[in-house]
Structures are given as structure tokens and as C-alpha cells.
Q: What sequence folds into this?
């Protein structure tokens, strides 16, 4: 446990040293990234030990606050989250050393490094904290440090707006969490999070709803997701990767921790997670399809993937409720593995998007194209990430989605066809739409001809950024091929979630994941067939005449880059089909008259929930606040009078009640 | 095990017969003699002997397209039972892997199409992913209905269990709905009429053919071959349900499986002769109908005790 504290300390120290490096960008890079890398290495040691089944002693220190205690513990569930958090933070730090350099002439790099390291340290503390007061404190540090990272480019109006949205949303979520922890503390009589309080079913359900809203806001579940597509694109790309890849997973962690505390779930908990998961997954990918800002598209995909995780959790809970332990284990296992997988491929994709922004200067897909020739490393890594996020074998996304599928199919066969088929339908539709979305993202950005000057002059990124992308791409392939190995690390965490006795959990999990060995065999068969076919093609073309020419455009001799299908036109059939949900706005000025001038066509898909749900509510709140404005008139005498009156009221109340 | 090793080579050998049969049936309906059913083999041989032409716009993704298409369809065949023959690789949940390896092939075919930078191929790619997004839920829900009736989770045990006895049990006839859904998916995924017309030479009306417009020579041969393997793979899913001959004698069952596939090919030929292509907006409705059939079947079948 001491190692975790040392890791957090190293992170904070590195960040502080970077902060005091002043304008010296290289020194800030050295301290900031060095602290992150060193801290991650130290912190991973106990996490790996805990995953391997060795118990790590909990730690409890005295502190000066009247409530709560500084108690930390590292059980398998925490350890399973520590690994992606520290791993992705280390790679993002490496990536950031190069990504941030172009900003060095305008800004001090010490500030973003300080908040980056603080964010990493606070995420680490969130998943090991075992006291609700400590949890809320580090939770708030995490929210604030990521807020300052989101507003890194605060000279831009849109970034400041995004920052405000994020700040408001995260605090609304935290308000629900404060209520949740107060309810827990009231029932158990203490703020300790390692013992489950004995609660009545009604109170447990109330606590579940509070946790679902509070943690769901951080995780980005629909309809609490509105901050996510604003904040993630605004942040620097390595921070987007960390926020999307692991920070939103602290919300999932919180939800899982809450489940271990609230006892046996009634069926409607599982149903509500399946429902929220299906809606988040399907709407998330649909909104992603309608975007043409690359980073915004990726941010909506985080909503989709969190939806898949929620589906897995819901299946696990329903399996627990209906006494189907195998279904429960597979569902929870799929959700857990998807947490790790999403960190791998979403980190990779955001790194890739950052490299595009770095090399081509824009993230508007309609101005990109043909980047694979100019940025072969970034393009290839982005392709691997795209295939992985679509859940295609032999990559990692398939393994976790397969587990959830298998759980749902098992449920259908064992007489729970209702929710089983909802999960299957949702996953299949999400899979199909994700394929559409990522063939669009990869195809429009990296293939074909450049649609603008920026893209034509794009350049590849340097070694640090390439290395961090290559490591993540290798991770995607590793989990895809060796799924059972990775899954056996999650045995303890699955046992905790499925409420199995810890002695049993390892063996029954080993039995549950037997089909995964065959999945790995299938992936190996697929890879060898790919290799074989590639050899066959090379052999067929050996010594043959190879011609080069223009793309065949039915005899048209001067095809131009602007004639290509664009991001919007590629997605139009699907967005048109689902226009009821998307409400895409079109602005078109067609050619008119006998001598038509230039025509324009633009589409924009604002978030339906933001426009339809939150805007009216917040506008109402603002109106109500304006009504009370007469109290605020700026005369100090009256303010003193307010204080005196309040004190008088409190005095009377105290005497009256005492 | 010895027998299951036989299916893959047989499928690899016989798959090009299916487009041959379809064309023969179409010729019969048009009152022509038509090419021999072995014509696809001759076409393949000719293509494999040619050189290739590449667009200067393309990258390695374009070259990878045909490779992945062929490899992934072959991988799907590894998971596929036919008649009484079990698949080479069978495990609980292999039906999901089956659907997803086909999706891998689609991903790379679409990427290769986008790599050419041609508006035509972009259009085909866009339509392909649109149809696939709708047919995927229909396919997996249909398989779920079959799994529920048979009480099994792998394609091999599923199809082995779905003999006449299980199909005539209460709820069993509802699987006819799944068969209808599978036939619709078969036509959609293989880009046949009423979804796509493999014969038109006007690129605007085509989907699959227009995506592979720029491929040439041996690579185009690989694509054509992969397309006939895909006909085989999805055709076997539908025919295994429509002709549930389970005698227990492997050779007889295998023969029945072959007959089933040829029947599906003839059915395709008939459909292509008597129907026109649907308007594109209608396609989503037909695929939604397939999904509705699957859901209905899921509600009607009784789970195995």
C-alpha cells in the first residue's frame, strides 16, 4: 500500500517541480512527464501484485479532520482500475512531451503538467480510497484538475464555454454523490467504505438511484452526458485520451463499488442499467455518426462505450438477481474487460486525432483526407484502433463484447429471453453503426485525396508520439489474441461483483471463460488465414505487369478531391433514417438564377439533450435567480444588516428549540 | 473430426458453383441457354492470370481489402457446420464470432473503396455500411431465437439439434420466421436483388460491385471468390433451417446440406428473375421487417427444458 502513496507523492512532486520550472518548456516536460512515468511504474507494482492474487494490506492514517479517516485499500476491483489509469497516464505523459511543445512559445507548460500529474494522482486515489470523505475530496481534486486541463487554451471562447459546462455538470453529479455517501454513512454509522451497511430495500434502492445519477454523470451515461462531447474535444489531445480512456471510468468504478456495498440487486436495478446502457450505446454512436469534428466524434463514442459497459453491468446484475451465476460472471467480466479495452483503443484513437491536429492543423474531417500517405504511423495505428473499437476480431474490443454477448445468449437459452434479447439487439445495432462510424472516420481522414491545403501539407509526428501510439496498438492486439490471460487477472474483481465467496471465484471464473480459449484460437486462425492470403496474393502478382493510373471515374478524366464522398455524405443515409433522434440542422444556399454564384451547404448536429432538456431548465434557473437580484444592490450597510438579521434569527431559533 | 475437416475444402471447391447456378436459373427464366454453371471457375482462372492496375491515389489499405475479405470469409467457413458435418471450430457463442469475422471483411472492403477517392465507390461504401448496420441485429436475434429453441449456443450443436423433432415441438414452427429473416439477410449481405443488382453496369445503382470498381486482375478474382464463399456461408445458415434433414448418417446429411445450398441458389435466381430492385429508401424497411421476424420468433419459441 505504501507504494501507492509513494506513486501519488511522486506524481504530485513531479507536477509541482514542473509548475516551478517557469518558462523553461524542456524542464517542465522533464519534471512533469518524469513524475508521471516514475509514479506510474511505482504504483503498478502493488496493483499487479493484487491482481495476481496476493493480498495488499490496507492503510489507515490519522488526519486532522473531525470526520472521516485517511484509509486506503487495494482489493482486486481497485487494482483492476489502477492498471489502466496508471498505464494510460504514463503513455499520455510521454505523448504530451511532444504534443505540448508547439504551445511553449505562447504558454507556460508548467501549469498543464502540474494539473496533469495532479489528475493522475487523484484518479489513483479515487480508486483506492476507502473512506467517503477522503473519496469526495480526491473526487473533487480530480474534477478541478481536469477542469483546468480542459481550459488550457482559454483564449478561445468555445473552450471557455466547454469548461463551464464541464464544471457545472461535474458538480451537479457530485451533489448526488454527497447525498449518496451521507445516506450510506447514516445507515452504517461511519464513513468507512470497506464494510457494506445493512440497509432496508427501499433505502438501498434510493442509494442506487443516487449513485447511478452521480457516477453516471462522470461516466457520461445518457442523459447525463452533455458535458462530455464539449469538454473532451476542448482539452489537449493527451488529456482527452486520459479523460475519455480512464477518467470517465472512475464513474464506472464508483458504480461498481456502490454495487458491492448495496447488497443483492432487485431486478429493476439491472433493467435500468440495461436500459440506460442501450440508450447510451445506440444514441452515442448515432450522434458520433453525425459529427464531422474528429475529436467530437470520438467523444460521442465514449458515450457509446460506456453504454456497452453499462449493458455488461446490467446483464451481470440481472444474472445475479435471477440466480444465474455464469451469466452474472460473464456480464461483469465483459464490463470490466471493456473498461480496460476502451482505455486502450480510445487512448489510441485520441492520440491519433491529436497527431492529425498536430500535423494537419485541423480536426474538421471535411478538410482532411489522404493522410495515410503523409502520416503512415498515425494512420496505421488509427486503423488498428478503429477496427478494435468496432469490436472486430482479432482485436481486443471483440473479446469484451463477446463476453457480454455470450452472457446475453446464455440468458436467452436459460429462460430470460426478455432482457437477453434487448442486450443482443442493442449490441448488434451498436456494432453495425460503429462500423459505419469508424469506416467514415478512418476513410475520410486518412484515405483518398486531401480535401484541403492543410491536409496536403500534413506531416508525421515525432518519436515520442509514435511510440505511445504503437504501445497502445500492440496492447489492442495482445488482449485480442490472449484474452483468457488478461481475463484471469480479473477473477478477483468479478468475484467481488458477482458476490461469490473469494475461495470459489477463481475456479468458477476459469470455468466461465473456457470459450475464450476458443475465441483466441479463432483469432489465431483468422490471423494465419490473413497471412496465407497475403502470401497467395504476392505469389499471384509475382512477375506480373503492374500498371498505375488515375482512379476509374467512368471515363471522366479530371476527378478532383472535392468530388469525393465527404464525412457528411457518407453518413447521410443512416443519419437520415434516424433523423427523429438526431435533429440535424441544415443550412443550404443552392445555386440560383441564370448565372448562379457559389452555393453552400452545411449541417450541424447539436446535442438533443442539451438543447431540449438542459437549456430550458438552466434558462428557468437563471430567470428565477434574476428575480432575486434586488437583494444584491451593492450597499454595504444592507449586507451588514442581512448578517445581523440572520444571526438574530439563528439565536431565536436556537433558544426556541433548545 | 475426420468428417468436419472435409467441409472446408468442399466449400472452398464448390462455392463458385452457387453464382453459376443463380445465373443459369436467370437464363432459364429469360429464355436463354446461358453460360455453363462452371463459368465462374473459368472467370476466376482468367482473372488470376492477369496483371493489376492501381490508382495512384491508393495506399496499402486498398491492397489489403481483397486479402482481408477472402481471409475473413474463409474464417467464417471454419466456424460453419453444413448438414450433419460439424464445423472445424465450435464453441459456445461461435455464432457471434461468425457474424463479426464477416464484419471484419466488410470493414476492409469499405476502407479499400474509400481509398480510391472515387465518389462512386464512396457511395457504394456508404450504402454497404448502412444495410449492414440494419441486418446485423436481425441476424443475431434470429440466431438467438434458434438458440432458445434448441437450447444450444454454438452453430454446430444448434444446427445438429434443429432436426424435425425439435422443429415440430411447440414453438418450433415459429422458426420459419427466422428462416425468412435469414433469407432476407442472405440476399442483403450478398448484394443480390432486391437490395442490389450485380448485373447493372450503371454504377449508381450498385453497391457491392461499385465498391470494387477499381480492383483488377488477381485481386478482383480474390474478391469474386470471397463473394461466392459468402454466398456459401450465409446460404448454409438459411438452408440448414429450411431443409432440416438429420438422418444421423453423415454422408446423407452432407448430401442434404449440398442440396439445400443449391435450392437457396435457385431461389435467389428465381427472386432475381421475377423481382426488380427496391427503391433505396425501401431497403431499410425490408431489413427492419427481417429484424421484426426475428424478434417475433424469439417471442414465440419455447426455450428448451
A:
Amino acid at each position: 500500500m505504501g507504494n501507492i502513496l509513494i506513486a501519488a507523492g511522486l506524481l504530485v512532486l513531479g507536477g509541482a517541480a514542473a509548475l516551478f520550472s517557469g518558462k523553461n518548456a524542456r524542464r517542465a516536460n522533464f519534471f512533469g512527464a518524469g513524475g508521471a512515468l516514475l509514479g506510474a511504474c511505482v504504483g503498478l507494482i502493488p496493483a499487479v501484485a493484487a491482481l495476481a492474487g496476493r493480498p495488499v494490506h490496507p492503510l489507515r492514517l490519522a488526519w486532522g479532520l473531525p470526520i472521516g479517516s485517511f484509509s486506503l485499500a487495494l482489493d482486486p476491483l481497485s487494482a483492476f482500475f489502477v492498471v489502466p489509469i496508471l498505464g494510460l497516464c504514463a503513455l499520455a505523459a510521454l505523448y504530451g512531451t511532444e504534443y505540448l511543445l508547439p504551445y511553449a512559445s505562447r504558454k507556460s507548460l508548467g501549469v498543464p503538467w502540474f494539473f496533469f500529474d495532479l489528475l493522475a494522482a487523484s484518479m489513483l486515489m479515487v480508486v483506492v480510497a476507502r473512506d467517503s470523505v477522503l473519496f469526495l475530496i480526491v473526487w473533487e481534486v480530480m474534477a478541478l484538475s481536469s477542469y483546468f486541463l480542459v481550459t488550457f487554451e482559454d483564449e478561445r471562447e468555445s473552450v471557455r464555454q466547454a469548461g463551464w459546462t464541464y464544471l457545472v455538470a461535474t458538480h451537479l453529479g457530485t451533489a448526488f454523490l454527497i447525498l449518496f455517501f451521507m445516506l450510506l454513512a447514516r445507515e452504517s454509522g461511519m464513513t468507512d467504505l470497506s464494510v457494506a451497511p445493512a440497509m432496508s430495500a427501499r433505502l438501498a434502492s434510493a442509494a442506487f438511484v443516487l449513485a447511478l445519477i452521480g457516477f453516471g454523470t462522470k461516466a457520461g451515461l445518457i442523459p447525463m452526458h452533455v458535458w462530455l462531447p464539449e469538454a473532451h474535444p476542448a482539452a489537449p489531445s493527451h488529456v482527452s485520451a486520459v479523460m475519455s480512456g480512464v477518467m470517465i471510468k472512475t464513474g464506472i468504478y464508483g458504480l461498481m463499488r456502490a454495487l458491492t456495498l448495496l447488497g443483492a440487486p432487485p431486478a429493476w436495478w439491472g433493467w435500468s442499467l440495461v436500459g440506460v446502457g442501450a440508450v447510451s450505446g445506440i444514441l452515442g454512436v448515432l450522434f458520433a455518426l453525425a459529427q464531422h469534428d474528429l475529436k467530437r466524434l470520438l467523444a460521442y463514442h465514449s458515450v457509446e462505450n460506456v453504454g456497452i459497459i453499462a449493458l455488461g453491468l446490467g446483464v451481470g446484475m440481472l444474472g445475479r438477481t435471477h440466480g444465474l451465476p455464469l451469466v452474472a460472471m460473464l456480464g461483469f467480466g465483459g464490463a470490466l474487460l471493456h473498461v480496460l479495452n476502451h482505455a486502450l483503443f480510445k487512448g489510441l484513437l485520441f492520440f491519433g486525432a491529436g497527431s492529425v491536429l498536430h500535423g494537419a492543423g485541423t480536426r474538421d474531417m471535411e478538410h482532411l483526407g489522404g493522410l495515410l500517405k503523409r502520416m503512415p504511423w498515425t494512420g496505421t495505428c488509427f486503423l488498428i484502433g478503429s477496427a478494435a473499437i468496432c469490436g472486430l476480431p482479432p482485436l481486443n474490443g471483440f473479446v469484451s463484447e463477446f463476453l457480454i454477448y455470450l452472457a446475453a445468449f446464455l440468458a436467452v437459452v436459460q429462460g430470460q429471453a426478455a432482457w437477453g434479447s434487448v442486450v443482443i439487439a442493442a449490441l448488434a445495432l451498436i456494432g453495425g453503426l460503429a462500423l459505419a462510424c469508424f469506416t467514415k472516420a478512418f476513410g475520410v481522414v486518412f484515405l483518398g485525396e486531401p480535401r484541403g491545403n492543410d491536409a496536403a501539407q500534413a506531416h508525421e509526428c515525432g518519436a515520442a508520439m509514435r511510440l505511445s501510439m504503437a504501445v497502445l496498438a500492440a496492447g489492442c492486439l495482445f488482449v485480442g489474441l490472449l484474452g483468457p490471460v488478461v481475463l484471469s487477472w480479473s477473477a478477483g474483481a468479478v468475484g467481488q461483483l458477482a458476490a461469490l465467496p473469494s475461495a470459489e471465484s477463481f475456479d468458477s471464473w476459469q470455468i466461465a471463460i473456457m470459450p475464450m480459449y476458443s475465441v483466441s484460437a479463432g483469432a489465431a486462425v483468422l490471423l494465419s488465414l490473413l497471412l496465407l492470403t497475403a502470401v497467395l496474393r504476392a505469389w499471384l502478382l509475382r512477375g506480373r505487369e503492374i500498371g498505375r493510373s488515375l482512379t476509374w471515374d467512368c471515363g471522366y478524366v479530371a476527378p478532383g478531391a472535392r468530388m469525393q464522398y465527404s464525412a457528411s455524405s457518407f453518413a447521410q443515409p443512416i443519419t437520415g433514417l434516424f433523423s427523429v433522434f438526431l435533429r440535424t440542422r441544415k443550412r443550404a444556399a443552392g445555386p440560383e438564377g441564370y448565372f448562379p454564384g457559389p452555393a453552400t451547404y452545411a449541417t450541424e448536429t447539436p446535442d438533443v439533450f442539451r438543447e431540449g432538456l438542459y437549456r430550458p431548465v438552466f434558462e428557468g434557473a437563471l430567470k428565477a435567480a434574476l428575480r432575486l437580484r434586488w437583494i444584491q444592490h451593492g450597499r454595504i450597510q444592507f449586507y451588514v444588516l442581512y448578517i445581523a438579521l440572520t444571526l438574530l434569527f439563528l439565536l431565536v431559533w436556537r433558544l426556541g428549540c433548545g | 473430426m475426420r468428417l468436419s475437416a472435409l467441409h472446408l475444402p468442399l466449400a472452398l471447391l464448390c462455392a463458385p458453383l452457387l453464382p453459376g447456378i443463380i445465373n443459369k436459373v436467370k437464363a432459364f427464366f429469360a429464355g436463354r441457354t446461358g453460360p455453363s454453371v462452371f463459368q465462374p471457375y473459368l472467370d476466376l482462372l482468367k482473372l488470376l492470370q492477369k496483371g493489376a492496375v492501381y490508382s495512384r491515389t491508393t495506399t496499402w489499405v486498398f491492397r489489403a481489402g481483397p486479402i482481408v475479405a477472402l481471409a475473413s470469409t474463409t474464417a467464417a467457413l471454419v466456424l460453419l457446420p453444413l448438414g450433419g458435418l460439424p464445423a472445424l471450430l465450435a464453441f459456445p457463442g461461435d455464432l457471434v464470432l461468425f457474424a463479426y469475422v464477416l464484419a471484419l471483411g466488410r470493414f476492409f472492403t469499405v476502407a479499400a473503396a474509400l481509398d480510391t477517392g472515387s465518389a462512386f465507390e464512396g457511395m457504394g461504401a456508404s450504402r454497404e455500411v448502412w444495410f449492414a448496420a440494419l441486418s446485423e441485429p436481425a441476424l443475431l436475434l434470429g440466431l438467438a431465437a434458434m438458440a432458445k429453441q434448441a437450447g444450444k449456443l454454438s452453430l454446430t450443436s444448434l444446427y445438429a439439434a434443429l432436426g424435425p423433432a425439435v422443429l415440430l415441438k411447440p414453438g418450433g414452427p415459429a422458426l420459419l420466421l427466422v428462416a425468412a429473416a435469414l433469407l432476407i439477410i442472405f440476399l442483403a449481405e450478398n448484394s443480390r436483388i432486391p437490395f442490389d443488382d450485380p448485373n447493372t453496369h450503371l454504377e449508381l445503382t450498385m453497391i457491392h460491385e461499385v465498391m470494387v470498381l477499381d480492383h483488377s486482375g488477381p485481386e478482383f478474382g480474390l474478391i469474386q471468390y470471397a463473394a461466392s464463399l459468402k454466398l456459401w456461408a450465409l446460404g448454409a445458415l438459411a438452408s440448414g433451417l429450411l431443409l432440416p434433414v438429420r438422418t444421423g448418417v453423415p454422408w446423407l446429411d452432407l448430401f442434404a446440406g449440398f442440396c439445400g445450398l443449391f435450392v437457396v441458389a435457385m431461389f435467389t435466381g428465381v427472386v432475381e428473375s421475377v423481382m426488380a430492385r427496391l427503391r433505396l429508401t425501401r431497403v431499410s424497411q425490408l431489413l427492419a421487417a427481417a429484424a421484426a421476424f426475428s424478434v417475433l420468433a424469439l417471442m414465440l419459441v419455447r426455450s428448451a427444458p
User: Anything to note?
Assistant: The CA atoms of residues 70 and 397 of chain A lie 37 Å apart. Chain A touches chain B through 83 residues (CB under 8 Å).
